[in-house]
Amino acid sequence: MRPSYTLVAFHAHPDDEALLTGGTLARAAAEGHRVVLVTATDGALGLAGEEDGRGRDLAAVRLAELHAAADALGCARVVVLGYADSGLHGESDHAAAFARADVEEAAGRLAEVLLEERADVLTIYDANGGYGHPDHVQVHRVGTRAAQLAGTPVVLEATVPATAFRLALRGLRLAGRALGRSAPLGERDVFTARARITHRVVVRAHLDAKRRALAAHASQRRGGTRVLESLLRLPRPVFALALGTEWFAQQGAAPGTRCPDVFSGVRSA
User: Which residues neighbour 35 within 8 Å (Cβ) at sequence distance 6 or greater?
Assistant: First the structure.
């Protein structure tokens, strides 16, 4: 009988879990592992349709969507740390904005979950926070420190190859799409160099679950040209090509490591 493990996925806002790691979480759950989703903020500053409200109203909508997406992915538990959304450029002046939270305090709260769950693997973001959102950068800092405090053996930075993302940004800008300018740290500091990526996880068998999780975040499909809505409109073969693989860089792994499974590091320990 294959051993089962516990995977804790730490994300910044509702919908991040589906975009970067949805297939991996669904695959782990389907294979009998325990999947725990931890989300730092309420997502209250995300763009949304008028019918979704603003501030607290939008936060309530997005947290309900988060739980629906987690159900679609097979997550056994959802933990919301309760910090405020900092905004794409850190514009929030909220006292509890996650980007300005004390790293040691926030890491201690996450470490409690890791210890309680006896986590084998923690997923966070790379040092760039992917595309530079200050809350995503803070996920990297807090998650890295929490794993140290809890002694979590494997820390994986959810990411994509940087070159591919830069090309996508350029294409969007050429097409006149505002999303082509949505990298607060600048185009050079996005995601991860391909040489640093250690895990290439094929999730094509779990794309129906990933699609349902993306669709659950209905508020993030309204209010203008939205990434989620564009992805969900893709024909299935194109959707599979675009989202059928998820990438991670394992902290401390030897250069050149190539793993097909997020639990490879635990099994080889």
Answer: 6, 7, 9, 25, 28, 29, 73, 74, 75, 76
What per-residue confidence (pLDDT) applies to 175? 43
Q: For residue 82, is pLDDT > 80?
A: yes
- Band of the pLDDT at 96, cuts 50, 70, 90? very high
Tell me the pLDDT tens digit for each residue of 133-190.
Answer: 999 999 999 999 999 999 999 999 999 887 766 555 554 444 444 443 445 445 566 7
- 168 within domain boundaries: no
Number of Cα atoms under 13 Å in the Cβ half of residue 196: 17
Alpha-carbon distance 157 to 145, whole Å? 13
Residue at 259 is within a domain? no
CATH number for 233: 3.40.50.10320
Say how many domains are in the chain: 1
Q: What is the CA radius of gyration of the chain?
A: 17
Q: Can you tell me the distance from the alpha carbon of 120 to that of 113, in angstroms, rounded to the nearest whole number?
A: 12
Beta partners for residue 248, in sequence order: 158, 199
- CB count in 10 Å sphere of residue 206: 23
Average per-residue pLDDT for the chain: 88
